[in-house]
Amino acid sequence: GAEERAAADRADAFRVAAEIAEAIFASEALDDVGRAGKVRTLAVSLSQRRNGQLRSRVRRGSLTAKRLLEMSPEDLAPPERQVQRERARADAKRKATIPGHAAGRFGVSYAGAAAEHAGRRQEETPDKVARRRAAMLPPSLES
């Protein structure tokens, strides 16, 4: 009955935890600091009450320990949090974008401004950046 089911759930949890621990320590992509950070991230993500979907996927095996390690903190977040982040990202992008009708007031089209900016940044070498920054310094701070 209920006791057998609880015992099976505990056994599953220990099996999954062992698989995750093995994957973490077998990973060559993580150094000691990276391992510690990944353990913290996984512990928080898997223990969040709202993240039952992630726990279920891990427990069922539809999300392997190896794939779990490859996931970013954003991917590990509860679905509601992912939606909030995506909305915030879209909102920030919308606020940072010059509308097409307004870009003409600045003498360039929106596409032209973006291309010009991208081209200018690609042409800058470290020497050019250093000279540009030095030109911005007041004379008393020049070396």
TrEMBL record:
Pfam families for this protein: TFIIS_M (PF07500)
Protein's GO biological process: DNA-templated transcription
InterPro entries: TFIIS_cen_dom (IPR003618), TFIIS_cen_dom_sf (IPR036575)
Renumbered residue ranges of the record's region Disordered: 69-143
Feature: compositional bias, Basic and acidic residues: 82-94, 117-129
Domain TFIIS central: 1-104
Cited PROSITE patterns: TFIIS_CENTRAL (PS51321)
The protein, known as: TFIIS central domain-containing protein
Originating organism: Emiliania huxleyi
